[in-house]
Design a protein that fits this description.
By secondary structure, the protein is of the alpha+beta class. It has helices at about 1-15, 35-45, 55-60, 100-120, 135-145, 190-195, 215-220, 240-245, 270-275, 280-285, 295-305; strands spanning about 20-25, 70-80, 90-95, 125-130, 150, 155, 165-170, 200, 205, 235. Pathway: tRNA modification; tRNA-queuosine biosynthesis.
């Protein structure tokens, strides 16, 4: 029992050293409560054209199907709230995409964390996950005591708000497990619901992703539906509206990750600059960015949809 506690403390110390905001640990088990919610969400087609959400249903609910002999799910958060923001007269990019692609930045840190554990503890079988595999990250973060799921379905922490990434390390080592977060501190507040211009945020902490501006500007490969017309509020890649209005984000502090700093001249560009964007400039500004996912053609499609009245 003492070794289990020592291992758990060791993991959290390494996580802190690597720059993670917080670290919580939960027992690798079947997510019984989330199963009917996920099934209902898919049946209602709230995932739109994100067909990959229908794949690996069982794996999404049971981490032991992802890692043989899995005993623990380590959930970690990593701050991305920027010190500087785009100018007001600009088409907007979600803050998480200001710098380098978080998938690579955080996954490298997870690999380093896993190697540190192997050096200090011994052979450990495990896998690293950063928003790119069938893992219900918010459910595990809540189970690990990191925070609660807000009405906008994003995880919120009292001292940090919600501008952070989530990542997981699933390993075959038994650890000391943190108490799950069970209190919803959103209360009667409905600011995120009221502010969403497309009414994508539904009751009971649910979201219709097919109505979300982030979905329309990133996930959707076809033309943006006319139902989004005049509702984009100048968001050309992703959307932060529900987070920007959340009272808990008054506690957000600027990150200190150099790789998340925006490349020049992104913050200085106004609407005209974006409308005149060339593919060459796109490749330069977003060389290692998550914005590359939508490609130059996708970003220009979004800009043209917004500006055409």
């Amino acid at each position: 029992m003492k070794k289990i506690q020592q291992y758990s403390n060791l993991i959290k110390r390494h996580a802190k050293r690597l720059g993670f905001l917080d670290c919580g640990i939960a027992k690798a088990d079947f997510l019984e409560k989330e199963a009917p919610r996920l099934e209902s969400w898919l049946q209602n087609n709230y995932h739109g054209e994100m067909q990959y959400m229908e794949n690996h249903f069982d794996k999404r609910l049971d981490p032991r199907l992802l890692v043989e002999g899995a005993k623990s799910v380590i959930s970690l958060s990593y701050n991305y709230f920027p010190e500087e923001h785009q100018q007001k007269d600009a088409y907007k990019i979600a803050k998480y995409a200001y710098g380098e692609d978080y998938h690579h930045v955080i996954k490298n840190k997870l690999f380093e964390l896993l190697e540190c554990l192997r050096e200090d503890i011994g052979e450990i079988n495990g896998r690293c996950f950063v928003d790119s595999a069938p893992v219900l990250e918010r459910a595990w973060a809540e189970r690990s005591g990191l925070g609660w799921n807000g009405k906008h379905t994003l995880l919120i922490q009292k001292k940090q708000g919600s501008f952070f990434f989530l990542a997981e390390l699933i390993i075959d080592l038994e650890l000391e497990y943190d108490a799950p977060f069970t209190t919803d501190h959103c209360g009667k507040c409905t600011r995120c619901i009221d502010a969403c211009p497309t009414e994508a945020i539904l009751p009971n902490n649910n979201i219709d992703a097919s109505k979300c501006i982030s979905y329309a500007t990133i996930e959707l490969r076809d033309n943006i539906p006319v139902t989004f017309k005049d509702k984009m509020e100048d968001w050309m890649f992703g959307c932060d509206i529900c987070q920007d209005v959340c009272p808990w984000n008054r506690f957000s502090k600027s990150h200190n990750e150099p790789l998340f700093s925006p490349k020049s001249p992104m913050l200085e560009m106004n609407k005209r600059d974006w409308e005149e964007l060339t593919e060459e400039t796109f490749k330069k500004v977003f060389k290692k960015s998550a914005v590359k996912r939508t490609k130059f053609t996708g970003l220009t499609r979004n800009i043209n949809f917004i500006k055409e009245k």
